[in-house]
């Protein structure tokens, strides 16, 4: 009976995994095992890769710094094995990664890279909120079910076994969207250059038109007409000259149409005197990423720098520059305690921007815990987030007897207690009267949190935070804050 139902269990599991994909990273890393008595130096004679039924061998070897025929000090070798294992794991192509040295002589080894592949073609179910976070939907929007987005995507995370990504999806509900994305990380034999292309179309019948008292104000007209229609396309060139450093150059086009009714609610929604906003943009982005786990890191660092030019031609409706920085440091003191500190900065060079380009605290990734219900908008944003975490529970269960798929057979549970302190500042050059309560002043929030990290690195956070206005509340969030 169980065997006859196995194909249906498999289909249900794949669909369930597809719904989780927006929140998770795949995999469990195994710590590398080494012999009790170790030599002073080792030389790698060969590198073998097993378990990669779909993924090309060169995609895996691209992440491995260890080379054949080179003599390594043993301590250096151990460090490189651990780093290489993390890099292969962070490809998000495998459930398990193990790199094991096999001794053929006193100082001669064969290196065995063993991987367990994940599902690559996933029917991805879209079921999410249109709002910034759960607290915004629950409190400010009165748990309005019409604000739920639903739909589906077909996601292929390893087209041709070369780590290419293909995503095609459609979404209904609060925001109606159609999107297509194709990325190829390497288009050359040396695996340094890549390309990605993306297109998106979406419409909204209920639209944020302004903010007041640092809360979002939404509007829909009596006929429930479409209030916003957006078309965008982009082409991205990537260069990866070393393991941890990435360069991106993106050229994009955006066309946004707004119904005239929107201007009755906010005459300054656009600032160029038309209800159609059209512009080309060019962005350069540098990323240094050396984290042990890209969704819930406990060690390493991340640096993102971006400079964007809006308006490449004289006829473009936006002419502005934007600079963005995000720097996170993850310090691991021991297996149980680690500290995370993240600094984020955003600045527009111009005096005013269309409402569609508004930034500030409350819009991802700029937030201060305790201000989940607020938006603080302006031209310059500076936020510094900090968490000291203590892991007090680390369990794992083998549920393979109940689950027909190896990918779901291990169920981990990790619980972290976190002490949090965030602070920041938003500079609003325009001093909009209805939002002066929180703009142009120092803001902070602090409190305690409980982080649950479970199957496939899913993260659930329950936090109690108090802000600088002495407002305290519990907040439930999904995904790590850094």
From TrEMBL:
Keyword Membrane: yes
Top-level lineage group: Bacteria
Keyword Transmembrane: yes
UniProt xrefs under InterPro entries: Bac_surfAg_D15 (IPR000184), BamA/TamA_POTRA (IPR010827), D15-like (IPR039910), POTRA (IPR034746)
UniProt keyword list: Membrane, Transmembrane, Transmembrane beta strand
POTRA domain span: 42-118
Assigned GO CC terms: outer membrane
Localization: Membrane
Record's protein name: POTRA domain-containing protein
């Amino acid at each position: 009976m169980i065997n006859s139902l196995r194909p249906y269990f498999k289909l249900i599991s794949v669909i369930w995994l597809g719904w989780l994909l927006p929140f998770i990273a795949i995999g469990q890393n195994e710590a590398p095992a080494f012999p009790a008595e170790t030599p002073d130096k080792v030389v790698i004679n060969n590198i073998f890769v097993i378990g990669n039924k779909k993924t090309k061998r060169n995609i895996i070897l691209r992440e491995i710094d260890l080379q054949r025929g080179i003599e390594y000090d043993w301590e250096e070798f151990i460090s490189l094995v651990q780093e290489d294992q993390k890099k292969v794991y962070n490809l998000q192509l495998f459930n398990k990664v193990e790199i094991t040295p096999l001794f053929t002589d006193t100082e001669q080894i064969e290196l065995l890279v063993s991987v367990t592949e994940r599902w690559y073609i996933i029917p991805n179910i879209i079921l999410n909120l249109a709002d910034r976070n759960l607290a915004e939907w629950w409190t400010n929007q009165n748990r309005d079910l019409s604000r739920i987005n639903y739909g589906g995507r077909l996601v292929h995370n390893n087209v041709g076994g070369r780590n290419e990504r293909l995503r095609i999806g459609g979404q209904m509900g609060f925001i109606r969207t159609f999107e297509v994305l194709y990325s190829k990380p390497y288009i050359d034999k040396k695996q340094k250059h890549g390309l990605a292309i993306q297109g998106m179309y979406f419409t909204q019948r209920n639209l944020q038109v302004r903010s007041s008292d640092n809360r979002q104000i939404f509007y829909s007209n009596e006929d429930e007409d479409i209030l916003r229609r957006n078309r965008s396309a982009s082409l991205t060139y990537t260069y990866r000259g070393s393991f941890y450093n990435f360069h991106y150059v993106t050229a994009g086009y955006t066309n946004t149409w707004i119904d005239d009714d929107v201007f009755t609610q906010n005459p300054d929604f656009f600032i160029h005197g038309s209800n159609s906003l059209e512009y080309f943009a060019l962005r350069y982005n540098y990323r240094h990423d050396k984290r042990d786990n890209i969704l819930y890191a406990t060690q390493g660092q991340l640096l993102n720098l971006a400079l964007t030019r809006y308006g490449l031609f004289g006829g473009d409706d936006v002419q502005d520059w934007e600079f963005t920085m995000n720097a996170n440091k993850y310090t691991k003191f021991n297996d149980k305690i680690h500290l995370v500190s993240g600094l984020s900065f955003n600045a527009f060079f111009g005096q005013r921007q269309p409402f569609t380009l508004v930034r500030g605290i409350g819009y991802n990734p700029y937030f201060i815990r305790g201000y989940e219900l607020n938006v603080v908008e302006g031209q310059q944003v500076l936020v510094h987030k900090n968490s000291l975490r203590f892991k007090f529970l680390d369990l794992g269960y083998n549920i393979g007897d109940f689950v027909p798929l190896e990918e779901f057979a291990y169920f981990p549970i990790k619980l972290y207690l976190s002490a949090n302190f965030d602070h920041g500042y938003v500079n609003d050059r325009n001093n909009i009267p209805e939002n002066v309560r929180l703009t142009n002043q120092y803001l902070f929030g602090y409190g305690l949190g409980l982080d649950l990290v479970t199957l496939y690195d899913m993260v659930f956070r329950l936090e109690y935070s108090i802000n600088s206005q002495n407002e305290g509340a519990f907040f439930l969030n999904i995904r790590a804050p850094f």
